[in-house]
């Protein structure tokens, strides 16, 4: 800015100056101006070059901060301070002295000793490789593809050849001979790094001791000084030289790892056994089976295709399923369909879509089937009203994250927000709690998913391919509901003196809905019990049998019996999507797991390209941990 201001002032005044001096209190700037701009980084280099261009031939001097007027404003000063400050109006006092000599001030040359500690200077360090006698200097770890490593080394060897033979240079695309020479040299270097003692022993034309683990292979050096396996196939005339004497490599060396990866892709992602057999046609990797398994295990495409979701230990039953109470006091909801019904009878009738809304009691497994016309929130709200009218209001409704279920909860919240304070207080006391399972986790709602399965079982056998009207379909659903509510909750007994097995209908009407009518016993004396007490005794008798017969059958875990370790943070996982093939499943990183009441995590938060999502472990397929 000072250099640009000097040019503007000079052009405006149209005067010729005998001498011009620039002052700055920054020793770093003085050091930068002293240096060659090419030694500085780009940002500082461009501005330093501009300063040299604008102030060519003029001197730059250093002034202390306390004598610099510009320092006052840069640090902030009020108007009153500037009015009273002589430094701001007259400048430093030494400029008014006619005998003042600028050479006495700390100048450009004085800062030269501090130029080595200046910032924004380009690094002057150089790297060099020293080729030792055994040539163990090639950076194998820098490469992830075998062909790229081979071609890079071939260009390196071409550079060395052209440097030594200026009259016979190699140009153009790499030839087959150059690539083969590169592979031979890389093999030799990898063997010298993997088996230094063996290579030294064979170079001296000595044999390995019998105690050496490679002695059974009878290795030797060929004409290219590459270690090959002696073996026992020397007298065979049907095999090639590479088959009879394969090249020895170490399964732990990165050269062999790249070789296995390249062959794995060339063989169209072959399995470990086939991969090893194919490589042994030319190569003999030590501990080759481990290297083949490791290659297939770390192949990203193979890992995505064989990914399996986690199956943590089956969780404990929620309190809503093992606490006695009225039927449908805690209800699970799901949709089934679409089903097709006729819009009217007679000719010209058209089929329209409809759905079945299934309400399942969490404790008694009683089922209520409601036919709805669409998947809108309004249709679900009407079905819920019909259910409440028949079986009373539930305390909690459990469901998945369907849009119609979530929409109803949001609408219910908006409705409460518009009411007056008295209505809000009453609605809050009578509120229905909506509880949602994690997204895309049907195993968390196994109770109503089983109800959907049972309903489909009977519906396919009763209706088949025929189409019914709304009234006819509703009648079939009512009959199916009666059958489902008459299913026994506990195993049947072979003793004729035992009670009938409990069914969900016992908790609805006191007997199975499909059982024959019994004789009228209303006038029978029952130990001085009133009718109300007798009905209450029957209800308590059902719940007593429910806790003894039904609850005990739910004690065992039928699957997911073993406990797995929790997912570690930053683990790379696939998110299973039933609508997509495995190669199109989204990738993600585990952020954290969400433990349940028993301390076992069955849900995890995952960071994906679209943000953070929450999924159940049944939809998470781990690929590798962070170390892999």
From TrEMBL:
<dbReference type="Pfam" id="PF18701">
    <property type="entry name" value="DUF5641"/>
</dbReference>
<protein>
    <recommendedName>
        <fullName>Integrase catalytic domain-containing protein</fullName>
    </recommendedName>
</protein>
<dbReference type="InterPro" id="IPR040676">
    <property type="entry name" value="DUF5641"/>
</dbReference>
<dbReference type="InterPro" id="IPR036397">
    <property type="entry name" value="RNaseH_sf"/>
</dbReference>
<dbReference type="InterPro" id="IPR001584">
    <property type="entry name" value="Integrase_cat-core"/>
</dbReference>
<dbReference type="InterPro" id="IPR012337">
    <property type="entry name" value="RNaseH-like_sf"/>
</dbReference>
<feature type="domain" description="Integrase catalytic">
    <location>
        <begin position="320"/>
        <end position="512"/>
    </location>
</feature>
């Amino acid at each position: 800015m000072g250099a640009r201001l000097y040019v503007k002032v000079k052009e405006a005044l149209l005067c010729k100056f005998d001498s011009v001096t620039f002052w700055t209190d920054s020793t770093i700037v003085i050091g930068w101006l002293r240096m060659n701009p090419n030694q500085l980084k780009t940002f500082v280099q461009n501005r330093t070059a501009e300063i040299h261009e604008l102030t060519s031939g003029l001197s730059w001097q250093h002034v202390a901060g306390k004598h610099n007027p510009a320092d006052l404003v840069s640090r902030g000063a009020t108007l009153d301070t500037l009015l009273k400050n002589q430094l701001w109006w007259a400048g430093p006092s030494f400029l008014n002295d006619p005998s003042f000599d600028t050479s006495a001030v700390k100048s450009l040359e004085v800062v030269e000793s501090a130029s080595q500690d200046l910032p924004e200077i380009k690094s002057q360090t150089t790297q060099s490789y020293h080729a030792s006698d055994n040539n163990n200097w090639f950076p194998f770890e820098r490469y992830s593809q075998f062909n790229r490593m081979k071609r890079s080394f071939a260009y390196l060897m071409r550079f060395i050849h052209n440097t030594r033979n200026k009259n016979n240079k190699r140009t153009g695309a790499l030839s087959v001979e150059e690539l083969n020479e590169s592979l031979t040299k890389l093999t030799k270097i990898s063997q010298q790094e993997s088996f230094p003692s063996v290579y030294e022993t064979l170079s001296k034309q000595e044999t390995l001791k019998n105690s050496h683990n490679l002695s059974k292979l009878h290795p030797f050096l060929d004409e290219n000084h590459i270690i090959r396996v002696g073996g026992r196939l020397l007298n065979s005339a049907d095999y090639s030289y590479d088959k009879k004497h394969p090249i020895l490599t170490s399964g732990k060396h990165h050269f062999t790892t790249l070789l296995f990866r390249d062959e794995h892709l060339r063989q169209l992602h072959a399995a470990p056994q086939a991969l090893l057999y194919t490589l042994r046609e030319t190569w003999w990797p030590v501990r080759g089976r481990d290297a083949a398994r490791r290659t297939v295990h770390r192949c990203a495409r193979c890992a995505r295709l064989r990914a399996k979701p986690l199956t943590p230990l089956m969780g404990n039953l929620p309190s809503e399923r093992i606490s006695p109470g009225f039927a449908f006091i805690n209800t699970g909801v799901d949709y089934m369909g679409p089903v097709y019904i006729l819009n009217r009878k007679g000719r010209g009738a058209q089929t329209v879509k409809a759905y079945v809304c299934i309400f399942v009691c969490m404790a008694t497994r009683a089922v209520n089937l409601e036919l709805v016309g669409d998947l809108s929130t309004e249709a679900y709200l009407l079905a819920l009203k019909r259910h409440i009218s028949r079986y009373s209001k539930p305390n909690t409704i459990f469901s998945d994250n369907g849009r119609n279920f979530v929409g109803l909860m949001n609408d219910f919240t908006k409705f409460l927000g518009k009411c007056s304070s008295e209505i809000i207080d009453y609605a809050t006391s009578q509120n229905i709690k909506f509880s949602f399972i994690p997204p895309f986790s049907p195993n968390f709602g196994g109770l109503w998913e089983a109800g959907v399965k049972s309903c489909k079982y009977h519906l396919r056998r009763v209706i088949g391919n025929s189409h019914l009207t709304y009234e006819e379909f509703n009648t079939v659903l009512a009959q199916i509901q009666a059958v489902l509510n008459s299913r026994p909750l506990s195993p049947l007994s072979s003793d004729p003196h035992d009670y009938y097995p409990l069914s969900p209908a016992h908790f609805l009407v006191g007997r199975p809905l499909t059982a024959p009518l019994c004789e009228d016993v209303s006038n029978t004396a029952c130990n001085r019990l009133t009718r109300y007490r007798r009905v209450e005794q029957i209800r308590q008798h059902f719940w007593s049998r429910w806790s003894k017969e039904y609850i005990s059958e739910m004690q065992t875990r039928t699957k997911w019996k073993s406990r797995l370790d929790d997912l570690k943070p930053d683990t790379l996982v696939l998110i299973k999507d039933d609508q997509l093939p495995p190669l199109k499943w989204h990738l993600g990183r585990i952020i954290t797991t969400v433990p349940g009441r028993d301390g076992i995590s069955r849900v995890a938060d995952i960071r994906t390209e679209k943000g953070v999502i929450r999924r159940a472990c049944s939809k998470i397929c781990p690929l590798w941990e962070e170390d892999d």
